[in-house]
Amino acid sequence: MKFSHRLMALSISSAFSIASMPAFAQASDAEKMKALEQKLERSMQLIEQLSAKVSQLEKAKPTAAAPASGEQQAKLDNLERQVAQLGSGISSRSTDSGLPLHGFADVGLGASGENNAVRGKGSKGFNVGSLDLYLTPQFGSNVRSLVELVFEVDHDGGVATDLERVQVGYAFSDAAVAWIGRFHTPYGYWNTAFHHGAQIQTALSRPRFLDFEDKGGILPAHTTGAWLTGALGLGDSRVGYDLYLANAPQLQVDGSVSALSGLNAGALSPLAAAGGYAGTGTLNMRMAGSTKFRPSVGGNAWYEPAAIDGLRLGVHALGAEIGDDSADLNRTRLRMLGGYAVYSGDRWEVLGEYYGFRNQDLSSGTGKHSSWAGYLQASYSINRLTPYVRLEKTSLDQKDYYFAVQESGRSYTRGSVGLRYEVDPKAALKLEFGRTNQRDIGPGLTDNYNELRMQYAIRF
Amino acid sequence: MRFDLNIRVSVLALSVLLALPATADVFVIAHSSVQIAAGDVRDVFLGNMQFAGGSKLQPVDNAPAQAEFLAKAMRMEPERYNSAWTKKTFRDGVNPPSVKSGDAEALDFVRRTPGAVGYVTSAPSGVTVVQKY
Predict the structure, then answer these.
(1) How far is CA A2 from CA A5, A51, A285, B21, in A?
(2) What's the burial of A156, exposed, middle or buried (CB within 10 Å: 0-12/13-18/19+)?
(3) Which of A39, A337, B8, B28 qualifies as a cystine partner to B130, CB 3.0-4.6 A?
(4) Which of A60, A84, A174 lies at the smallest CB-CB distance from B49?
């Protein structure tokens, strides 16, 4: 009955609305009255017809839902199953079929004012960052795998293909997942959290000392070995850990005589300066092993307190015997110990990491050398915009073979400010300005330079 | 004519429902073999808890109910949830929950799959209700 009333009210309203149309404005009063009467008559007839139709429909409707018989219930169950199966055909899946493929890519342009005798001139113009593809096929409840392939553009514009990660694992529980293969070395936070994922890191660039081995990094960003990782609840808080045993990396020198060896000879480790190979080495993670196994051992432990959602506090350590392939065959005991604090909230993100070194010369008796590196970055999201700022600094002892031989082993200070714009949830446009003070390039020599870069980064 | 009227009334009712703010209840459900508490839901759906009682958990999302679930149970925006899973997958090699097309498919999957955990918007039967939001 309620439906009938609503219909009637609707019709009467419509009739009055129609009756007040301006088409009659010019007619005489008598004509107006006659037209209105006719209109009202037609409206009443229409209402009566509709009311009769609604009554007829309501009488035809069953008065109450009868309990479903066994046959009806079976039909309903069958229908529900068919609907579910139909749904499964159109729903997206991630693990139950196919091969999950994910990736990152970034392109951009930039201008660097770097210009010094040791590191050369900075690049200017458009650039392609990298194309990163990673697969996460699952083989069952416990077996895991992760394969990552990276196409990366080097300084000269050539494309390098890197088997970034190949790791096969077994999950015993949430507290113990074992991996073997090549993986991102689990030191600190940045290296495993972001790595080649430019789109998921807020800033355009990585802190330079945490960059990849051939792009300015001072640590082995990749490791080949075995890795045990896990996390578990501690009340409402969480704790986690990483432990790994791997092939120690090796410093590979390129055989040329570097400008650095002459310009900064007094500050450098004596053999590296005399041999002319200072500043020419890059870390090779010995993915195929070595003729002699030298271990690299590291660990990472973190705590996420329930009291502050999004906060993680961690400590990490890395030890390895690292040799170089120079004529002097220098060997260094790398000892790194550090800590980090990360807060990732809805708007604020604050990252801070510290790496302390106490490396020991094992081949020429220059003793122990202390160095450190660290950064602090903060950002605040306002809708799609995220401004950020970062300070980073390294103080690397040039008498330490580990840093003296490395191409990226010079101390520096850098301040960066940037702006990130979320084009959509999977694409970000970033603009970053940085100023760098480059040191350890010779007595009284420094290079202060600016950089401006733009990046368009996506994930898929 | 009657069929036509029914369709019109259904379309009208659907339009009204879609226009209303989302206030439906969300029932987090699990296969009868799964032993998890209400306090575990967030960890399960963020991939931090993948095992319970020795069995592997299989969380599934329910597309039409996802926004409601994320707001009420996870207290997260969909973008933040997706971003968290991208980072999780990239670091740990763990795949995000598969996405079901609606209550019927989610319920059917959870009923049939040991270890499954999902959510629906109407009171379910044949599964364990972990928490109603």
Answers:
(1) 5, 11, 79, 25
(2) exposed
(3) B28
(4) A174
Angle at alpha carbon of residue A82, lines to A79 and A88, rounded to 5°: 145
Query: Hey, are the CB atoms on A88 and B102 less than 8 Å from each other?
Result: no
pTM of the model: 0.80
Which residues from B are below 8 Å from A171, CB to CB? 50-51
**Residues sharing a CB contact under 8 Å with residue A6, sequence separation 6 or more, in sequence order:** none
A346 contacts B80? CB cut-off 8 A: yes
With beta carbons under 8 A apart, name residues in chain A contacting B93.
136, 144-146, 167, 169
Q: CB–CB of B105 and A91 under 8 A?
A: yes
Q: Of A108, A111, A134, A106, whose CA–CA distance to A121 is shortest?
A: A111
Whole-number Å distance between alpha carbons of A218 and A255: 20
Confidence of residue A235 (pLDDT cuts 50, 70, 90): confident
**Which tens digit of pLDDT belongs to each residue from A249-266?**
999 998 889 999 999 999
Q: Which chain A residues are closer than 8 Å to B49 by Cβ?
A: 174, 233
In this structure, the dihedral spanned by the alpha carbons of residues A221, A227, A228 and A234, taken in order and rounded to 10 degrees, is 0
Burial of A389 (0-12, 13-18, 19+ CB in 10 A): middle
For residue A95, the distance in angstroms to the closest alpha carbon of chain B comes to 7
